[in-house]
């Protein structure tokens, strides 16, 4: 359910290291809590954020939720597919439903995140 190659934040975002760039999105738990996603607001390419900064929002039929940067850095790409197909966040949150690609400011941010086992424990404890 939660890929071992990802790192997870307490705010229910994930990060995948892909060389010098890192990809992030929201977890399966987060998308299931939101319900049917109908709109995704993403940051602009070139924007810079610190870990924990709000970088966008996800609107569902039930609520609007903030998305927080799980790591700091510069946005180098956004998932433009989500403009026309926001449901990808529900269908494949750890894959095709990714939100943004970042050039990290520091690898230290990654060390603050949880592995899959710790994240599953977090959500099990509710």
Which descriptors apply to this entry?
single chain, 126 residues, alpha+beta, OB fold (Dihydrolipoamide Acetyltransferase, E2P), six-stranded antiparallel β-sheet, 5 helices, 23% helix
Q: From the alpha-carbon coordinates, what is the Rg to the nearest angstrom?
A: 13 Å
**Helix share, percent:** 10-25%
| Cα separation of the termini | 17 Å
Describe the global form: globular
Poorly predicted tracts of residues: none
Q: Report the strand count.
A: 9
Q: Number of helical segments?
A: 5
Care to describe what's here?
This protein has 126 residues and is α+β, with helices and mostly antiparallel strands. The chain has a domain at 28-115: RNA polymerase II/Efflux pump adaptor protein, barrel-sandwich hybrid domain (OB fold (Dihydrolipoamide Acetyltransferase, E2P), Beta Barrel). It has five helices and nine strands; from the N terminus they run E-E-E-H-E-E-E-E-E-H-H-E-H-H. It has helices spanning 28-34, 81-84, 88-91, 108-111, 116-125; strands spanning 6-8, 13-18, 21-26, 37-41, 48-49, 54-60, 64-68, 73-78, 100-104. It has a six-stranded antiparallel sheet with strand order 1-2-3-9-8-5. The chain has a three-stranded antiparallel sheet with strand order 4-6-7. The longest helix is centred in the C-terminal third of the chain and has 10 residues, at 116-125. The mean pLDDT is 97.
Describe the SSE topology.
Layout: E1 6-8, E2 13-18, E3 21-26, H1 28-34, E4 37-41, E5 48-49, E6 54-60, E7 64-68, E8 73-78, H2 81-84, H3 88-91, E9 100-104, H4 108-111, H5 116-125
